[in-house]
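Entry type: protein chain
Record version: 2
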Amino acid sequence: MPGDSIVYVDGFNLYYGALKGSPHKWLDLEAYFKRIRPNDCIRRIQYFTARVKGKSDQAAYLSALSTTPIVHTEFGLFKSKRIRCGVSSCSYTGDRRFSAFEEKGTDVNIALRMLDDAYQQACDRLILVSADSDLVPALKLIRQRFPQIRIVVYLPYRDVVLPNGTVKRNPRGAARELRSVAHQCKQLPLAELGKAQFPDALPDGKGGFIQKPSSW
């Protein structure tokens, strides 16, 4: 059914669920969602991530996304925390704690943006790309307050082929809670990723080019 749609992309969920280790990380989000939602009028794509210090590949990708007017990026934070080593067989006698970074704020940013758009009556359909069950309360509230808005969830995951050849379906656990609150919930179409890539050298609009990272 045609209608105005807004897409909300959990960047880290998308990366670790569908893009990491693949040749499709240079993904043109606008082209991709127009391929998989050809009957929608996509008003906006909200991409949620956090800047990773020293990651030039990520900086290049964010620059590429900035060339597509309907894509808007919102940033959470990476916070440092101390983690104790949990490897019981480790014989190291020194400090068994180490520093690690944890992405914070993305789920809150997505929830607030979806709720605000619902209250502003900005669209007929919310399209969420995430397998994060922390978003369930926001989606439940939207369904209660705005029953006319349809909620579509795409789960970013790849099937896992075990050493014995068995295919393990949906290693992310099928996101049962998300399925329970969405009008429609399905796996993100991975076959379309390769058909919606930015060119290797993308004009930056300032007379220069944004280069696809060589490692991608």
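Comment: The mean pLDDT is 88.
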